[in-house]
């Protein structure tokens, strides 16, 4: 979080911490750039960076320019858009209009690609 803030990120929600209880409020960070750790590294914590794009192809190109994600979550009502993302990207898991759904069944695989 500190790295993002120093490099121009902005807290859109949350950000409160209590060191004594090891509490870290769920936090949304806007104005993300590719130089920030939250852009480059896996996040194991209550931080969600918000990346913006002008059109769907720009988002797909960004996904494809990075190492393949373990999980990809698509939110939208246009089924042709979700199909386009599914067809043109590669990830360990893709979930449409939900999140962490693939964790609910312990027999389903997680991680890796395709």
Explain briefly what this protein structure is.
By secondary structure, the chain is α/β, with parallel strands linked by helices. The chain has helices at 2-6, 37-40, 56-64, 79-88; strands at residues 10-13, 17-18, 23-24, 27-30, 47-49, 71-74, 93-96. The protein has 4 helices and 7 strands, in the order H-E-E-E-E-H-E-H-E-H-E.
Mean pLDDT: 90
Structure summary, number of beta strands: 7
| Coarse morphology | globular
- Contiguous runs where pLDDT drops below 50 for at least 5 residues: none
Continuous helix count: 4
List keywords for this structure.
114 residues; alpha/beta; 3-stranded mixed beta sheet; two-stranded antiparallel ribbon
Layout of secondary structure:
Blueprint: H1 2-6, E1 10-13, E2 17-18, E3 23-24, E4 27-30, H2 37-40, E5 47-49, H3 56-64, E6 71-74, H4 79-88, E7 93-96
Parallel strand pairs: 4-5, 6-7
Antiparallel strand pairs: 1-4, 2-3
Structure description:
The protein is α/β, with parallel strands linked by helices. The chain is built from four helices and seven strands; from the N terminus they run H-E-E-E-E-H-E-H-E-H-E. The strands form three sheets. Strands 1-4-5 form a three-stranded mixed β-sheet, with no helix packed on it. Strands 2-3 form a two-stranded antiparallel ribbon. Strands 6-7 form a two-stranded parallel ribbon. Strand 4 (27-30), helix 2 and strand 5 form a beta-alpha-beta unit. The protein is globular, with a radius of gyration of 16 Å. The model has no long low-confidence stretch (mean pLDDT 90).
